[in-house]
Amino acid sequence: MKLENIPGEDQSWAKLATQDPTEVCRRTHASFDEQTETYSLKSFGCEISVSPAEKRISSSSPEVADLLGKVDATLTYVWYLASAHALPLSGKLIRPDSLPGGQIFQVGTHVLPLGPLAEKYARAPEAFVETGEMWGGEVLDYRDASVRLWPLPSVPTTLILRTEDEEFPSLVNLLLDSSCRFQLPTDIIWSTCMMSAMILR
Question: What is the pLDDT of residues 38-53, one digit of tens each?
């Protein structure tokens, strides 16, 4: 798949190309094939292949491959490999709009499409969990159903479903581990969240 030029993408490719693969893998939990000079990392339980020499990203999963042309997914993967840190998760969940610059999550096309997810799974918490598990997610114990997804090895997203009842409509919330603010800039965190919402559609 030929990649489009996204602001910041060329710089991220250039930075990744100059880095020691051993150090990149240590920081990001990726692996590196010396023969093909290609990185591999897990995203939603699927393998993502990243070739700095060819500036190419691919996936054997059609659904994940479809994400590569959307919401700056290309920049997200390359930025992560080039710049993420070797940090443990904090275990503290936060709302995306609480991040520095997090107001982007509240306006226009940057509002996360969680409403359609809430409608889809309004009376189907089992399907919500099953879909999350299908994409490498972990089942959690929040509300009526919840899963932790792994769009990036060090940046999980937690999606929580409240099913509808006679009093309240259904609702889906997305939360992040607070360590994400030290891993990615807010606009790339946004694309990571968007991918998480889109993979459950």
Answer: 999 999 999 999 999 9
Q: Which amino acid is at 98?
A: S
Closest-CA residue to 25 (of 84, 72, 75): 84
User: Residue 7 carries which DSSP code?
Assistant: T
Contact 168, 81 (CB under 8 A): no
Other CB atoms within a 10 A radius of the CB of residue 27 amount to 20
Does the model's pTM come out above 0.85?
yes
What is the spatial distance between Cα 74 and Cα 84, in angstroms, rounded to a whole number?
15
Share of the chain residues as helix, strand and coil, in percent rounded to the nearest 5: 40, 25, 35
| Alpha helices (runs of H) in 84-157, residue ranges in sequence order | 114-120, 125-134
CB within 8 Å of 5: residues ≥ 6 apart: none
Helix 73-83 to helix 9-17 angle (10° resolution) is 40
